[in-house]
Amino acid sequence: MNKSNVIDLDSLNVDELRAITENAQQLIAQKQHQRLYDAYTQFEKIAEESNASIEEILQAGEKLEKKRSIKYRNTANDEETWTGRGRKPTWLVEALAAGQRLEDFAI
């Protein structure tokens, strides 16, 4: 912001400050709405270009995110995985107790 646009807030009374606050909040809400609208229209364009629906893209993203969040996999059973968050699964606790290292299961 350059100096010509600076407002001396100390010189304003309470009503003027409230008006500025209300106007700023309205402008913030408008800009947030516009940002989301712009993102949505870009999303629609991407969906159209990929010959898919927005729902299909979101479902694919959920599956991909789930796969990406897996950090450890049981070498004895590929279906047993762990994200590295929360309690360690039994298969991992038992393997660690048997002398294996956590790094042995890293994906």
- SSE order, one letter for each helix or strand: HHEEH
- Give the integer mean of the pLDDT values: 91
The counted number of beta strands is 2
Instruction: Tell me what portion of residues adopts beta-strand conformation.
Output: under 5%
Gap between N and C termini:
48 Å
Helix content: 55-70%
* Class computed from helices, strands and strand pairing: mainly alpha
- Walk across the major sheet and give the strand order: 1-2
Describe the structure concisely.
This protein is mainly α. It has helices at residues 14-49, 54-69, 90-97, and strands at 72-73, 81-82.
Written account of the structure:
The model has no long low-confidence stretch (mean pLDDT 91). Strands 1-2 form a two-stranded antiparallel ribbon. Strand 1 (72-73) and strand 2 (81-82) form a beta hairpin. It is built from three helices and two strands. The chain starts with 13 loop residues before the first helix and ends in a 10-residue tail after the last helix. It is elongated, with a radius of gyration of 26 Å. The protein is mostly helical.
Layout: helices, strands, pairs:
Layout: H1 14-49, H2 54-69, E1 72-73, E2 81-82, H3 90-97
Antiparallel strand pairs: 1-2
